[in-house]
Specification:
The structure is a single chain. The chain is α+β, with helices and mostly antiparallel strands. The chain has one domain: Ribonuclease H-like superfamily/Ribonuclease H (Nucleotidyltransferase, domain 5, 2-Layer Sandwich). It is 33% helix and 20% strand. The chain has seven helices and seven strands. Helix 3 runs parallel beside helix 4. The protein is globular.
Length: 227
Amino acid sequence: MPGVKVAASTVWEILREAGIDPAPERTSSTWADFLRSQADALPACDFFETVTLTGARLYVFAVIEHAGRRIRILGATAHPTASWMAQATKNLVMDLEDAGLRVRFLIRDRDGKFPALFDAVLADAGIEVVLSGVRTPRMNAVMERWVQTCRRELLDRTLIWDQRHLLHALREFERFYNVHRPHQGIANARPLNPLPPPIVDPDQIACLEVRRRDRLGGLLHAYEHAA
């Protein structure tokens, strides 16, 4: 009808008439963007528990690096007290400094076993704690994946006698995981042992020998070229 303004027919036009950009640029980053941008020096940590043959419940504290997949098992205890956590955290900070890593953030969940002193020790070292969401294990997926690997390849196949036996098994698995076990997430390399150059010479391939070294009574197998 003449003299009557026709109403805007789309949301786009309504926003434009109101002076609002209908396609604003996103300024906030996603969780995936954060992980990619900080992966080179981004560790994540978690507790997981296991039970000995005597029924004692032990808690294992471990840290993993996102980029290189290096694992650090900081200890196991039946009582993760604030003082025990503080000492484990100090050991972690010293280990990261010795490795030359300039860590800015560390991911952890909201488990009550992490005392305020844990965050305070890291803050003194210039490391900010980033909390994962409530009941959102995918926000700490790299750490959760390693816990599953440790259970599947070690703990579910081992009868643990006591804390000393557990620590011995975990230390062996830590060395195996960091030095010998290939990881698909880093192109089948090892965190502390780069892949050897490929062998393309047919004569070398024909006489190639592989030596196997067993760990933990044959539970783990490490393969290497024979000299």
